[in-house]
Amino acid sequence: MSEQNDGATRLQDVIGPNGAAAAGDRVVQRAIEAVRTHLGLQVAYVSEFVDNDTVFRHVDAPGLEHLIKPGDSRSLDDVYCRHILAGRMPELIADTAEVPMAMALPITHEVPIGTHVSVPLRMSDGEIYGMFCCLGPFADKSLNNRDLGMMRAFADITAFEIDRERKAQRLRREKEARIQAVVDGAELGIVYQPIWSLAENRPIGFESLSRFTAQPIRPPDQWFGEAAEIGRGVELELLAIRHALANLSAFPRDVYVSVNAASETVLSPLLAEMLDGQPLDRIVLEITEHDCIDDFEALEGAIAPLRARGLRVAVDDAGAGHSGLQQILKMRPDLIKLDRSLIEGIGDDPGRRALAAALTMFARETGSRLIAEGVETEAELAMLRALGMEKVQGYLLGRPVPLDAARALVTEPAAHRKVA
């Protein structure tokens, strides 16, 4: 160990303040910089074994960039790595002149290499990723096992970060493959849940909902959430909207279809392109995740041309804390959907009744219309009638069903309908 650097490097210096790890690449780069400086050597790098080569992924070699830089590679037949892994050469070589095998390799004289310290980077599954290495042109017999121990500690940090990044990349590839399979195949279907007018005793619209047959079997929101994680949320939502609207002509002219879209999708010009030529007066755009909307002006600007052509806008989850009144005021929706948490047990809960009544008045004053979602019992329906609620949706009135069953709801005789 060089005396001027003795004790100057600590693991905390690389990990960062309060033990919080920086971004993976930054941690690896800081690790090799710290070790190279600590050992007083000229070159430090992290390499990856790729087929029969060692590829330099991270490099710290100030002033020697012409000799080694990220992306360069060497054949494993020409370097120390295999010999070190096989135990034929030590991990710490303070003086290569004292190691015959090192002197027999042309690279020792070509670089030249007088000091060499290298330890393997082992992943959590036991795989050897590559090497964590420092070297210099001159011998340095002050280097000792304490330095080697420090080198191994930093190599462990580096291996952890690389392993974590590799796992993240592998997970992302798996997500990409799942979403691509849905996009490419027939693994996304649409069902329709009726929205009833109590005054007319008939469905006046249907909310389109996605159903996935792809593996793994899981709720739709997890599919859309995963697509959003990898930057394909807009693509998947547009696919669902396209499928839903493809059946719009199957319903009578006075029945609308509601489609769901996150704010990112609404802001995408691709949505307006998709809706071009559609009968917008028969479409309701239900904006989800409106708790995360930061730029209402941009959202309004994207929707305004569509609303001018007849598109209606709805927000959901009102009364659940998810959609604040201030946000509703800013968006000026045509429809406000009351959350199931407000509807459940409303007949026995004065607080729920008071809030529902207040939102009914709020909707009237702002020119919106209310839809009570999640109606599941006759008692809930009776109380909503008493409160003057005109439009309802929920399992009591109809579960999400395929197109043919949904179409039958608006074509069968009125006497056969569920709501009396």
Provide structural commentary.
With 420 residues, the protein is α/β, with parallel strands linked by helices. It has 16 helices and 14 strands. The chain has helices at 11-15, 24-39, 81-85, 100-104, 106-110, 145-184, 220-229, 233-245, 263-267, 269-275, 296-308, 325-331, 340-343, 350-366, 378-386, 403-409; strands at 43-50, 53-60, 73-75, 92-93, 115-122, 128-136, 188-197, 202-212, 256-262, 283-288, 312-318, 335-338, 369-372, 391-392. The strands form two sheets. Strands 13-12-11-10-9-8-7-14 form an eight-stranded mixed beta sheet. α2 (24-39) packs antiparallel against α6 (145-184) and α7 crosses α8. Mean pLDDT is 89; it is low at 1-22.
Number of distinct helices: 16
CATH fold name of the largest domain, please? TIM Barrel
The SS-based structural class is: alpha/beta
| CATH homologous superfamily placement of the largest domain | EAL domain
Integer-rounded radius of gyration: 32 Å
Low-confidence stretches: 1-22
Helical residue percent?
Answer: 40-55%
User: How many separate domains make up the residues?
Assistant: 2
How widely separated are the two ends? 88 Å
Report the CATH C-level class of the largest domain: Alpha Beta
| Global mean pLDDT | 89
Biggest sheet details: 8 strands, mixed
Secondary-structure element string: HHEEEHEHHEEHEEHHEHHEHEHEHHEHEH
CATH architecture grouping of the largest domain: Alpha-Beta Barrel
Proportion of strand residues: 15-25%
Strands of the largest sheet, in order across it?
A: 13-12-11-10-9-8-7-14
- General form: elongated
